[in-house]
Amino acid sequence: MAEVRVRLLRGWRDLEACVRIQREVWGHADLDITPVHNLCVSIETGAILLGAFVGREMAGYVYSFPAVRDGVCCQHSHHLAVLPAYRGRKLGKTLKRAQWIEALRRGTKLITWTYDPMQARNANLNLHALGALGRVYLDDFYGRTPALMLDAGVPTDRLLLEWRIATPRVRARMAGDRLAPDPARIVRAVEMKPGGEYPAIVPGRPDLGRTEPRLLIELPRNIRDLKGTPGLIGRWQKAVRTAFKHYFAAGYRLDDFIAGERSFYVLKKSASRG
Ligand SMILES: CC(C)(COP(=O)(O)OP(=O)(O)OC[C@H]1O[C@@H](n2cnc3c(N)ncnc32)[C@H](O)[C@@H]1OP(=O)(O)O)[C@@H](O)C(=O)NCCC(=O)NCCS
């Protein structure tokens, strides 16, 4: 692959390329697109918009805009997209790294974003590779927007992540320092159970009585494999949602993700709820 260059985007030609990528990556209809004029005005008012170029083609971009969280100025990252032909070649991570550097340069210490908690690959990127943390679960956040649903009628639940970009934790992850915990040594609050109509991919009933310092919530390795079975996706979503909401309220935070033969979120009891 040709060399990858990342730069700040400007001018309507760059912004039109972002619109093309939104159509290709998310299949957005006109109504769901973040349009050129919106991207344009948000750059002028403090947004960070970066594109990754392979040769002359923009292969992906990352977009965040100024926001406030708990009274603190931050950036909220709304889009990260890489064209399918360029995936799995570190462009997503390269874009997040460029966003991290640019945000630090501007004096920002926090970047937030939301993502679909059923997507194991994104969870691995967000929590394990980047070191973001979570403690807020948003039920059916975007409402019934078809382009944002996992399958017909499945609520658009999201986790809100906090990426505390100046902390030693994040600096270490960005330097590649990340040891995955051993899932065999941690208690499971949600795990796959065998049998039933769809053997081995059905979630068990969430165990809400645990008090250990760390807990696991299992996810199917690839939720897209369950597409066409919205009832089963809905069951998984409900189990994961129930466990997250219960344990967040009990003072746990989302701390890491383990991707392997089986995939797990890692919850950790927080010393403080702040
Ligand atoms: C998410 C997305 C931007 C990733 O782009 P990408 O260029 O393929 O990602 P990278 O090659 O940089 O991989 C980044 C990380 O993702 C995770 N990842 C990638 N492929 C994975 C896989 N098959 N299984 C588990 N994790 C995977 C890993 O953590 C990886 O980092 P690592 O290889 O150092 O462990 C891209 O898949 C995309 O555009 N998806 C659709 C839009 C979307 O979901 N955006 C929201 C992202 S929160």
Annotation keywords:
274 residues; Aminopeptidase; 4-stranded mixed beta sheet; alpha+beta; 28% helix; 6 helices
Cα-atom Rg, whole angstroms? 19 Å
Under CATH at level 1, the class of the largest domain stands as: Alpha Beta
Fill in the CATH topology of the largest domain. Aminopeptidase
Helix content: 25-40%
The SSE order reads EHHEEEHEHEEHEEEEHEE
Report on the biggest sheet: 7 strands, mixed
**Total beta strand runs:** 13
CATH architecture of the largest domain: 3-Layer(aba) Sandwich
Q: Residue-averaged pLDDT, rounded?
A: 94
Total number of distinct structural domains: 2
Strand arrangement within the widest β-sheet reads 1-2-3-4-5-7-6
Annotation field: number of helices: 6
Stretches where pLDDT is under 50 for at least 5 consecutive residues are none
User: What do we call the CATH homologous superfamily of the largest domain?
Assistant: Gcn5-related N-acetyltransferase (GNAT)
Shape: globular
β-strand percent reads 25-35%
